[in-house]
Structure formats: structure tokens, C-alpha cells
Amino acid sequence: MQLSTVFSDFILSFVSIFVAIQIKNITSYSKAVGFLGFIAIGISAGLGAIHFLGIEILDPIYRFSVGFASFVGVPLIGTGFFHIGIKKLEKNFEFVLKLSFSHPEKNNRTC
Fold it and tell me: Membrane-spanning residues where (predicted)?
């Protein structure tokens, strides 16, 4: 039994599931993939807390969930943040393009 790992996995599980519940708006692509990523990590960390308590009956499920969370959960969270960042980047880029291609009117007065 490794109590420090039990506590850290429990805290990770609690925080991940809490964040997933906070962003569970499925209408947004970035929130939907973030939700799935945080749920995968939360479930995996919860099973890790059980595993490190010394309860080995769930080991096959724990091993699968760790692999799933690391290969699918973390990239899903990254995809969600990337999608949000691209939207902001597109807005800023459009603004910069408008500024760069808008020419001030020349004053054609002659003296």
C-alpha cells in the first residue's frame, strides 16, 4: 500500500471529475472533447487510488484505463484547448488582416 500515491490519485480523480462536470456542455466541440478527456483521466485516477490501496481485483480494468487515459484522454484535452485557441487566433488574425489592408483615405486637396 502506497498512501502518498493513493492520496494523489484520489485528488487527481476528484479534480478531473469536478472539471468534467463543470464543462459538460456537449453543444461545443471543445467542451465535449475536454469533458471526455477529463472523465477518462478521472476514472483512471480513481481506479489508481483503489489499485494503490492494495485492492488488486480491478487490476485489468485499471491497466486498460491507464492506457486509455494516457493515449486518448490527454490528447482529447489538448484538442479541446487547441480548438478554443484556434477560434481566438482566427478572430485576432481577421482583425489584423482588416487593419493591414485598410488604407486611410488620402487627402487630395491642392493649394
Answer: 6-23, 35-55, 61-82
Give the pTM: 0.72
Q: Which three cell numbers stand for residue 64?
A: 486498460
Backbone angles phi, psi at 9, to 5 degrees: -65, -40
Burial pattern 51-77, b for ≥16 Cβ within 10 A else e, equals bbeeeeeeeeebeebbeebeeebeebb
Q: Report the candidate in 36, 31, 19, 38 with the shortest Cα–Cα distance to residue 81.
A: 31
| C-beta separation of 35 from 70 below 8 A | no
Distance from chain centroid for Cα 53:
28
φ, ψ of residue 59 to 5 degrees: the values are: -55, -45
Place 106 in a pLDDT band, splitting at 50, 70 and 90.
Answer: low
- Whether the Cβ atoms of residue 49 and residue 6 lie closer than 8 Å to each other: yes
Please name the residue ranges forming H helices in 23-106: 29-52, 59-68, 74-101
